[in-house]
Design a protein that fits this description.
The chain contains eleven helices and twelve strands. It has helices spanning about 50-60, 80-90, 105-115, 130-135, 140-155, 175-185, 210-220, 285-290, 295-305, 310-315, 330, and strands at about 10-15, 65-70, 95-100, 120-125, 160-165, 185-190, 225, 235-240, 245-250, 265, 270-275, 280-285. A twelve-stranded mixed sheet has the order 7-8-9-6-5-4-3-2-1-10-11-12. The protein is globular. Bound molecules: S-adenosylmethionine (SAM) and iron/sulfur cluster (2 copies). One iron/sulfur cluster binds near residues 277 and 312.
């Protein structure tokens, strides 16, 4: 296990498979910026399945046990099932998961599970189609996402649902979503709307604090807090009284968790980022694409992690916006 300058071990990797997406969520890829002229990564710049496998082997050799595939939308990557199959065979990797908007999950859940995927986080911001489309830039439909969730459960995947709440856009959906997934027996996690990237006009007033979300759910269905299920877990877990069903909140804004953050992120073109709000990444592409031994890749990761001091969310209130542009969430994955 390797540690950064604040003594935080590296234990978790987010691997972005692609920077494109078929939705245009207001809080991530607003259409007016990510339009037809936006310069997405060309296909030939994406890490090949073999390079992704080499990256994961290097991270696992340094103590990482958990890898989450993300994007953009990871299921837009035509080789997604092949990538899962390769990574599932990496010795020492115990937890292979994916975060997806689930619009393509109905068809892909069974092959992904057969390839070795174990867990899926499906993002769903509203059950009401009109509200859903306000959040998604007018694309997609909640029924497709719900079909994807059903298919994932039928394929034996462990499923959780993620919801970002943006005040005055989808906060009316807090209770209906909680009600629906409580009845379905699926863990629902509300993510506080964050100031990621550079383009969606985040403002504190648009974040609905986790405490307010929990209070609103609790008025409908009383909740009791649960301890974290693993060290470094970012969700604050709760259980509905008398039911084995959880609801959680991710309090990135109101109660930052930088001191326990052991998460690295690798973009789809091989740049290593040590924080979701970083202004620069570290290029591993040459190493990943070449025949350099995995130990050499691991050495480079160790150097980068060893110099890490990031704690953006803890400093958010006391600092002005970084002068350089932050990395986009759709480029490195949430
Ligand atoms: N496209 C996939 C999806 O939506 O699940 C994977 C990538 S997406 C960037 C990963 C997660 O980040 C999603 O659950 C999304 O809701 C969340 N996210 C994106 N922008 C966010 C923001 N500004 N604040 C909080 N969460 C955000
Ligand atoms: Fe796409 Fe996910 Fe970003 Fe929405 S949050 S635009 S689904 S990458
Ligand atoms: Fe980790 Fe950066 Fe988020 Fe803090 S702000 S929890 S260091 S990713």
């Amino acid at each position: 296990m390797i540690r950064d300058r604040l003594n935080r071990p590296l234990f978790d990797l987010r691997l972005s498979l692609i920077d494109r997406c078929n939705l245009r969520c207001r809080y991530c890829m607003p259409e007016e910026v990510f339009g037809p002229d936006y310069a997405f990564l060309p296909k030939e710049r994406l890490l090949t399945p073999a390079a992704l496998e080499r990256a994961v082997r290097a991270f696992v050799s340094l103590g990482v046990r958990k890898v989450r595939l993300t994007g953009g939308e990871p299921l837009l990557r035509p080789e997604a099932v092949d990538i899962v199959a390769r990574l599932a065979r990496v010795e020492g990797l115990v937890d292979l998961a994916m975060t997806t908007n689930a619009t393509r999950l109905a068809r892909l859940a069974a092959p992904l599970a057969a390839a070795g995927l174990r867990r899926v986080n499906a993002s769903l911001d509203a059950l009401d189609p009109v509200v859903f489309r306000k959040m998604s830039g007018g694309r997609g439909h909640p029924s497709r996402v719900l079909e994807g969730i059903d298919a994932a459960r039928a394929a034996g995947l462990d499923v959780k649902v993620n919801t970002v709440i943006r005040r005055d856009l989808n906060d009316s959906e807090i209770e209906p979503l909680a009600d629906h997934f409580r009845r379905a027996g699926i863990t629902l996690r509300f993510i506080e709307y964050m100031d990621t990237g550079n383009h969606h006009g985040w403002d504190h007033s648009l974040t609905v604090p986790a405490a307010e979300i929990l209070e609103r759910i609790g008025r409908l269905h009383p909740l009791e807090p649960l301890p974290p299920s693993a060290p470094g877990e970012v969700a604050r877990r709760h259980r509905y009284n008398g039911l084995p069903v959880e609801a959680g909140v991710i309090t990135s804004i109101t109660q930052p968790f930088c001191r326990d953050c052991g998460r690295a992120r690798l973009s789809a073109d091989g740049r290593l980022f040590t924080c979701l709000f970083a202004t620069r990444g570290h290029d591993l592409l040459e190493l990943l694409d070449s025949r350099a031994p995995v130990a050499r890749i691991a050495e480079r990761i160790r150097e980068v992690w060893g110099a890490r001091e990031d704690r953006y969310s803890e400093l958010r209130a006391s600092q002005s916006e970084p002068r350089d542009k932050k990395v986009e969430m759709s480029y490195i994955g949430g």
